[in-house]
Write a structure and sequence with these properties.
There is one protein chain. It contains 11 helices and 12 strands. By secondary structure, it is of the alpha/beta class. Strands 1-2-3 form a 3-stranded parallel beta sheet. A 3-stranded antiparallel beta sheet has the order 4-5-8. Strands 6-7 form a two-stranded antiparallel ribbon. The site of zinc ion (ZN) has 6 residues, from loops.
Length: 321
């Protein structure tokens, strides 16, 4: 099996250092295994995606020295693919047309909440559209019972009760595909073998797994890595100072130092030193040498010590502008 991984940012903002770290792990993993690293820009949010951010993401990777083997794919140019996949699922019976209005669906959820159950679509149109000829969305038929289990390489087995998974909408009434469906179709089309991404995506995983199954694709291996945390252990955000990769560049940081710092976040300094990890640069790095996301990265990665180290190395008193 040839390893194929993807990093899939949205161009709704700058490349964040958390995203850069996830991208690095994908890239290291592909390099170690002689595999393929793919950049896929998820640019279907028409309201918030911009060309400026798209260019800025490419620029950030160029600065960091991360070269993608296949790139960049853009979801906005792949709409026909998603529609064709939905048609195949309709034909196979794995998906169905639903004519319920948003108000009707909200009323179903309200009834479920009142009965103390998980709010979800009640399956009215599973046997056929309730209002033939009316505008319809396309839903994926989800199992009602049992569990969807995801074996995560870092978190171990994670189980999601199927009773809590909705018959998700895969095509909206206007014919546009939804986020989780695009992700799954792309992973299938790109023959992705390992999904390495931030653990904020864990909750999307069961829905994507149901899509892989419906599409007849063996599910990839998953590794959900913890977020970068601020020194106060809360999730890193703008209030902790600069978070975009290009902002660090503009402050005069070296790309090599940035890569070194990001790769080592979450490793204990002792483990890094013991493994001779004095400096990590793309191409020769012991994180890549380990061939996997190191176990030290299971925990949330504190940003404090490595940035202090960076400051020291770069002779700066203040990190933040
Ligand atoms: Zn319906």
């Amino acid at each position: 099996m040839s390893v194929r991984v993807r990093f899939a940012p949205s161009n709704t903002g700058h490349l964040h250092i958390g995203g850069a770290r996830t991208a690095l792990f994908n890239w290291f993993f592909a390099r170690h295994h002689g595999g393929t690293a793919i950049l896929r820009v998820e640019d279907t949010d028409r309201e918030r995606s911009t060309e400026e951010y798209y260019e800025a993401i490419l620029e950030a990777f160029e600065w960091l020295g991360i070269e993608w083997d296949e790139s960049p794919y853009r979801q906005s140019r792949r709409m026909e693919l998603y529609k064709a996949a939905a048609e195949r699922l309709l034909a196979s019976g794995a998906a169905y047309r639903c004519t319920c209005t948003p108000e009707e669906v909200e009323a179903m959820r309200e009834r479920a909440r009142a009965a103390g159950k998980t709010p979800r679509y009640d399956g009215t149109c599973r046997g056929g559209p309730a209002k033939p000829g009316a505008p319809f969305c396309v839903r994926l038929l989800a199992p009602d019972e049992g569990e969807t289990e995801v074996e995560d390489l870092l978190a171990g087995p994670v189980r999601f009760p199927n009773a809590e998974i909705d018959d998700m909408v895969i095509l909206r009434t206007d014919g546009t595909p939804t986020y989780n469906f695009c992700v799954a179709v792309d992973d299938v089309e790109m023959k992705i073998t390992h999904v390495i991404r931030g653990n904020d995506h864990l909750s999307n995983t069961p829905k994507q797994v149901l899509c892989y199954e419906a599409l007849g694709y063996p599910r990839p291996a998953f590794a959900h890595i913890p977020m970068i945390l601020g020194p106060d252990r809360s999730r890193l955000s703008k209030r902790h100072g600069a978070t975009s990769v290009l902002a660090f560049r503009d402050q005069g940081f070296l790309a090599e130092a940035m890569v070194n710092c990001l790769a080592r976040l979450g490793c204990s300094a002792r483990a890094c030193t013991a493994s001779g990890n004095g400096s990590i640069r793309p191409g020769h790095c012991s994180v890549a040498g380990a061939g996997a996301v190191p176990s030290g990265h299971r925990r949330g990665a504190g940003v404090g010590p490595p940035l202090a180290h960076l400051r020291e190395r770069l002779g700066r008193q203040e990190l933040h502008p």
